Amino acid sequence: MAGGAMVNSAGGKDYPGGLTLFVFFTCVVAATGGLIFGYDIGISGGVTSMNPFLKKFFPEVYEKKQSATGTNQYCKYDNQLLQTFTSSLYLAALVASFFAATVTRVMGRKWSMFAGGLTFLVGAALNGAAENIAMLIIGRILLGVGVGFANQSVPVYLSEMAPARLRGMLNIGFQLMITIGILAAALINYGTNKIKSGYGWRVSLALAAVPAGIITLGSLFLPDTPNSLIERGHPESARAMLARIRGADVDISAEYGDLVVASEESKLVTHPWRNILERRYRAQLTMAIAIPFFQQLTGINVIMFYAPVLFETLGFKGDGALMSAVITGLVNVFATLVSVFTVDRLGRRKLFLQGGSQMLLSQLVVGTLIAVRFGTSGVGEMPKGYAAAVVLFICVYVAGFAWSWGPLGWLVPSEIFPLEIRPAGQSINVSVNMLFTFVIAQAFLTMLCHLKFGLFYFFAGWVVIMTVFIALFLPETKNVPIEEMVLVWKGHWFWKRFIADEDVHVPAAAAAKGAATA
Ligand code: BGC
Asked: Which residues are in the Major facilitator superfamily (MFS) profile domain (predicted)?
């Protein structure tokens, strides 16, 4: 076959070369970037339900919590400052991802990961040593900068390193690490809550330094992607790197040729931020905004951030609430594995549609179960068996998310942009994600207080909208090489009208193949 390219079932091309050990290890190291994000998501909910922590930093919440028995369960944690503790991180990540876009493009993906890890390390130290709210929040902001850099660079790195037909699997390594981070945080909170002298929360917060250390050191050993090397004017190193990651006896000429073409085109683009607004990128821009927005509007972070608080609201006492967070954390990890092994076979769309339906059903059940017991007054008790049923359906919901919107919310945006607008596109993705993570973190306790059980119906409504959106507007992207993604949009019933024929540049290898068959 000319140039070594093969046509695959999706109508795109496969390049030769499978999963080499080298790619596997670099991807594992890079994916640990997800650990820092996950650890953060999981740690704050547990810490904010610990009494010594509340007493020191949020005495009003502590008082209210102590006197809340027999009164409105929905409102006992409603406090702006407490929500700011959780949410400040995501605002910082939002701003940082824009700077990270430039670092990722100009200096390469690897230095972005390094910068992220290092800032995160400082944030963890500040948080563990915090004496007042200011130290706490400044620490959270530094952690956020770290997350912004890591989330900007890691998904793109993974998608660029992976052979096209394993891209889904390798990219989901990022989400898998996020879920492992969340689970580790839940377990650590469960343990540190038992520390008698009351400094357990410090241990929880300071241990964020462990995942940060891993990605900081790990990134120093990572090679940069061939795509980034070419983009930064090192074609020979790029070719050598591609040969190394695809395997010594593999003919890489087709893939390399396509990378060069993609890079030539990207050089014509001097303003990626302005370019992404062009009509021909309308599909990608829409997805870069809609996917992260919808991912957050599934309501997942209500569970992830506030699971212990939520479970306490439902009547679980201290330990029981932290334990339930461990249970949802375990479900989250194992259900993510399902997508690791199915995403490149079943495809993205099937997972999105199935996961969406499962989340919808379980949200309706959870909302109703809570409504029956607490009604609108928020006063009531939940018998053990009943509470167990609520936890069960929350787990069904988490599983649905964990094999659909969780991983795909990062995978799809990282694989749909042409090189010239990739860092800009990824920034939009990260920042929209962070913006709505922030909004949910900031508003959840207040929303719970006002919408009560209706909060679950609220998110269920959004899940209906997003599932219909995917069904209508997202084409299947499994197995399609990134450089050929434009063909997928060009073939879509809706998006094709935005792409003129001359916008479709056939990469060198495909052209050669076309000429050979003509
Ligand atoms: C989301 C996070 C969420 C996590 C749960 C990620 O994909 O971006 O907001 O907390 O999944 O596993």
From this structure: 26-478
Helix ranges (DSSP H) in 375-484? 384-402, 405-415, 422-451, 454-473
Which residue reads 């683009």 in tokens?
269
Residues 6+ apart with CB under 8 A from 411: 155, 159, 167, 168, 171, 172, 175, 343, 348
What's the rounded Cα separation, in Å, for the pair 333 and 516? 47
- Residue located nearest, by CA, to atom 12 of ligand 1: 179
Residue from 295, 305, 429 whose mutation best tests the ligand 1 pocket (most atoms within 8 A of CB): 295
Cα separations (Å) of 458 from 383, 390, 448, 462, 466? 26, 17, 11, 7, 13
Sign of the C-alpha dihedral computed for residues 250, 232, 109 and 423 taken in this order: negative
**Ligand 1: which residue has its CA nearest to atom 3?**
301
Residues 6+ apart with CB under 8 A from 87: 437, 438, 441, 442
Domains of the chain: 21-510 (1.20.1250.20)
Written as tens digits, the pLDDT of the chain (518 aa) is 333 444 444 444 567 767 788 888 888 888 888 999 999 888 887 888 888 998 999 888 888 777 755 566 677 667 778 878 888 899 999 999 888 888 877 888 888 889 999 999 999 999 999 999 899 999 999 999 999 988 888 888 888 888 878 888 888 888 999 999 999 999 999 899 888 888 999 999 999 999 999 989 998 988 888 888 888 888 888 898 888 888 877 888 888 888 888 777 767 766 777 888 999 999 999 999 999 999 999 999 888 877 776 777 667 776 777 788 889 999 999 999 999 999 999 999 999 999 999 999 999 999 999 888 877 766 667 777 888 888 899 999 999 999 999 999 989 998 898 877 877 888 899 889 999 998 888 887 788 788 878 889 999 999 999 999 999 999 999 988 887 888 999 999 999 999 988 888 755 444 444 333 33
Query: How far apart are the C-alpha atoms of 49 and 185, rounded to whole Å?
Result: 14
Alpha helices in 300-421 (DSSP H): 300-313, 318-346, 348-374, 384-402, 405-415
> Minimal CA–CA distance to 90: which of 436, 329, 448?
436
If one residue of 40, 90, 171, 175 were mutated to test the ligand 1 pocket, choosing by the most ligand atoms within 8 A of its CB, it would be 175
**C-beta 336 within 6 A of ligand 1:** no
pTM for this prediction? 0.85
Instruction: Answer whether 460 contacts ligand 1 (Cβ < 6 A).
Output: no
Contact 419, 381 (CB under 8 A): no
Number of residues assigned to the chain: 518
Locate the ligand 1 atom nearest the alpha carbon of residue 178 and give its number.
12
Ligand 1 neighbour 378 (Cβ under 6 A)? no
171 ligand 1 Cβ < 6 A: no
